[in-house]
Amino acid sequence: MPSLDFLAEVHRLLEPECYLEIGVRAGHSLALARCRAVGIDPRYAVEAELRCDVQLFRTTSDDYFSSAEPLAPTGGRPFDLCHLNGLHLFEYVLRDLINAERCSSPRGVIVVSDVLPRSVDEAARAKHTDIWTGDAYQLLAVLRTYRPDLTVLPIATEPAGMLLLAGLDPANPTLADRYDQIVSEFRAGDPQPVPADVIDRFDALPAARVLGSGLWQLLRSAGPEAGPDRVRELLAGTVVRELGRSFVPS
Ligand SMILES: C[S@@+](CC[C@H](N)C(=O)[O-])C[C@H]1O[C@@H](n2cnc3c(N)ncnc32)[C@H](O)[C@@H]1O
Fold it and tell me: Are 112 and 139 in contact (CB under 8 A)?
């Protein structure tokens, strides 16, 4: 399934009220939103017809989140869906994830684009292929090591895969506190040491299986007062039963 089709279904199934997109470019993915939205990109040139109540910011995601009130455009409401599709370098994606989770609802979802390179060339930090993931694939190993509390689902979309994160904890400081340590541990020079499992998509879930699961109903029905622990408790049973034990928090 193409990544854009998967994201369209996520919008339809989750019915987010507030959507964040980092990396807008031509607006093709932003055009899927039907809710209040915030789009961030230093060089956007929107061609797609947008059908949401959107505020666009012509700046980098780091600059946007260094502002005192990143939730000002939503009137303080946290995001229920974030799509991270900005600069595909590991340390940038990691910062985008830290900032997006901080501004998310515990019953929200973060989708990270282009995390499953099909070759070492696509994963190069120095871009030299049309389809480019950079070293964002490292996020998988980072989250397994440092955030075993999160539900992390690698999705086999085309061309370059996505990562879906649920069971978010906006107050969890682990990634921010260990940022320097994580970057020095995981950032590698080219050619990238991409694990064969990643290139073979050994652990990746078929998109249709995730879309057809009970995850969406469960997240939609979690009340706004549900905290991270409650959402995780709800997620655990459904994810184990329908997607596999290896994807649930340990
Ligand atoms: C893969 S494209 C996004 C495609 C877009 N989602 C679409 O559907 O048309 C990546 C975008 O990230 C933007 N970008 C690069 N560095 C960024 C940064 N530091 N913060 C936010 N966006 C960035 C680029 O300008 C580019 O438009």
Answer: yes
Q: How far apart are the CA of 233 and the centre of ligand 1, in A? A: 34
**Closest Cα to atom 19, ligand 1: which residue?**
60
pLDDT in the model for residue 250: 62
**28 touches ligand 1 (CB under 6 Å):** yes
Nearest residue to 211 via CA among 77, 109, 121: 109
| Complete edge-to-edge strand list for the sheet that includes strand 36-40 | 53-57, 36-40, 18-22, 79-84, 104-113, 162-166, 151-155
Q: Which residues of the chain have pLDDT under 50?
A: none
Do residues 162 and 6 touch, judged by C-beta distance below 8 A? Answer: yes
Does the C-beta of 3 come closer than 6 Å to ligand 1? no
CA of 62 to the centre of ligand 1 (A): 13
* Structure tokens given for 145: 């090591």
Q: Is the CB of 133 under 6 A from ligand 1?
A: no
pLDDT of residue 246: 73
Q: Residue 74, SS3?
A: helix
pTM flag (> 0.70): yes
- Does the CB atom of residue 104 touch ligand 1 within 6 A? no
In the numeric block, the tokens 């959107």 are attached to 54
